[in-house]
Amino acid sequence: MENDRINSIIASLRKDNDNIPTLLLNFKKATGMILAGMPCDFLPFEILHACGIYPFIIPPGLKPRADFRINPDIIIAPARCCALPDSNSAIQKIIVDDIPQKHGDNSLHAWKTLIDDILAKIKGKAVAISRDELRASSEKYAILRRLIRGIVLMRREKPDALPHVNLEVIFSVSLALPPELITEKLSSLLDALNDYPSRAYGNPIPALVYGRCRNQAMHFDDLEKAGFLIVEDDICGGRRSFDLSYNTTSEHLLDEIINAFSFRPFCPCLRSAASRFELLYMLIGSYGVETVIFIDDGACPARASHFAFMRPRLMRLGIDPLLLHPDSLIEDAQRYVEFASR
Fold first, then answer.
1. Which residue has the higher pLDDT, 209 or 303?
2. Residue 54 bridge partners (DSSP)
3. I need a surface site. Which of 18, 49, 96, 314 has the fewest CB within 10 A?
4. How many Å from the N-terminal Cα to the C-terminal Cα in the chain?
5. pTM to 2 decimals?
6. CATH number, position 277
7. Residue 158: what are its φ and ψ, rounded to 5°?
8. Under DSSP, is residue 130 helix (H, G, I), strand (E, B) or coil?
9. Within this chain, do residues 1 and 73 fall inside the same structural domain, yes or no?
10. Are residues 291 and 266 in the same domain?
11. Which stretches of the chain are DSSP H helices?
């Protein structure tokens, strides 16, 4: 019965995912907000939202073009992003040459300068960020992220309740649609997962998968059939997009958001291998990760150099680095699991 409940909610979210253009157009008509399409969440969504700009991640396969049912009012993208979407040439674009590489208090001024510059380009003038609007926006996104983290945690304990192909749908709608449109469904899904019975799953190997952008969920499910349990991922638009927390009632909310956001590892084309290792991979032992699976499909040139940098360092941490190619992924994964279980 609980599985039927879960499947019903997923079917509704999948329908929302298929109707993202229409839902965004209706949201724009209802709110008057500027729609800002992005290839990844490299800017704090709540800050843009508080300024009347709705940021959303353009789902794979929904590239904006002249005959598309809806186009963003503007596209914001990092210059070095290999997922930079093709688009109607009439759409205004803001290409960000670089993001601040430092994190914490040392990066606060640089992030504020970057965000102020982007807001001014969109609005055509300097923008004052309202504390009340920022608090309201931050609370919406804080609720959304908590729900996603709860779903991911429950999925780790009950993987048969939620295949990765369904988890990918959840991530997609959560990065594209306004929180107020989906939080009720996500809350119902978390309740259903809590009620889903726990079962024994043998002794799978806890793993983090490092790969390109989304649309790899079938690979993740195949890896779990081979004997892994994907507990974390380093995928653009995956789990790390929701790994952000701060005090929404702070008197210095803007600084808190930026400070927390500055510690995100981002993608290989946005941060150096050394920075990403410090901000993400040095910490994965606390998640119980035993193996990092690198899926190399040649889609992002930066990833190959990062693998070479991280491989020996992961081994020093006692974590196995495993390089897999999509064409032989299942066979090589099975061989690794068989060897590791001896």
1. 209
2. 35
3. 18
4. 38
5. 0.93
6. 3.40.50.11900
7. -135, 65
8. coil
9. no
10. yes
11. 2-18, 20-31, 45-50, 108-123, 131-157, 164-176, 179-195, 217-226, 253-262, 273-279, 301-316, 329-340
